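Escalation from tier 1.

The customer reports that the assembly of two entities below gives different structure tokens on two consecutive runs. Tier 1 could not reproduce it. I'm attaching the input and our single run for tier 2 to review.
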Amino acid sequence: MIIKVLGPGCANCRNLEKATRQALADLGLDATLEKVTDYPTIAGYGVMSTPALVVDERVLLSGRVPKAEEVRALLTTAAV
Amino acid sequence: MSVAAHLPVTRRGRVLGSVAAGAVWLAAYQLNEHLWGWLLFDTLGLDPASRLGQSVHFFVYDTVKIGLLLVLVIFVVTFLRSFMSVERTRALLGGRREGVGNVLAAGLGVVTPFCSCSAVPAFIGFVAAGVPLGVTFSFLIASPMVNEVAIGLLLTLFGWEVTVVYVGAGLLVATTAGWVIGRLRLERWVEPFVFETRLHGEVVDPAAGLTFEDRVSLSAAEVGTVLRRIWPYLLVGIGVGALIHGWVPTDFFTTYAGPGSAFGVLVAVVVAVPLYSNAAGVMPMVQALYDKGLPMGTLLAFMMAVVALSLPELILLRRVLKPPLLAVFVGVVAGGIVAVGYLFNALLAA
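Tier 1 run:
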């Protein structure tokens, strides 16, 4: 599973990354986590509100920072 | 947050819960109105007529009052805005003609939740979806100007009439400036990659599928985030305001920058741009300046310029706008703000 956190580096983006790492650790999933800060790439995903969570090239969430439980739920569904 | 787990689930429960929360807030507000006079002057013996007494009272009273109002406004506005998103705004604006599109974009800028870190992806997203450049600008000008911190502070410090005027003026500047920039046909000065971006993702709408608990929880989180971010600016602003309140002679500014002054508004806007501040740092100061005679039109122009032409925002926009377009943007928006400032000085003096 390739996970990307999209965002230019503001507090929200860092919080999403933290929540995602936490969720990955909780689930014990094997995945690579990448931070994408390049604007053209971010926009290419159709994302207009950062931060955004992309798993295997699909945008799962954008525009807010979810709690770790929600990220866990999203990742579990995506891992199936 | 475990708070979400304890929220009422029935409609009646939610209404009652909201009313109860409102009552608690109102009680705290009323307490603040009376507490400091009693504590500082009656109990601790500070002299209410002294400069120190006035400054200290101003500082504590205003800090709590602003804090309470900000909590209320940020929570309510974020909650209401959670029904809206930049993605929905784009859908509403795509293909609109200029003119009508500018007005709509400015209005949507007010109600759409917008973080300045998203300014660049939002800009790219709008343009790539076919929203005209000028219409996109109307949105980008209105959004930061009419932010909930600014509204909350204006309500606290000046009351709702000034707040309405500020919002109206902000919308006017956003609509007109956006329209003017659109008419100038400056697409060649947008960084090329913006037009070349191919949107190959599915649009995910942050506003879709949120439950009541989600909305309460994200609104509460936003209150925390914003307050944590602005509290140093707020304290500095209130501190400077307190000093002005206590130590600058009354009507000081009427002599030098009163309603008849030709340069007051211009100076205010020029000073505002490099001021690395935000609404929170500036408005408490603005109230004290107003009490010392600076006219409201000048102050409105100053406040608008601080939020609409902030240096951090301009640096962000440089990623998508080439310098000539950035310069035109600053010039047109500044021009609009200056015009609004002079207009209101004239109207209020009449």
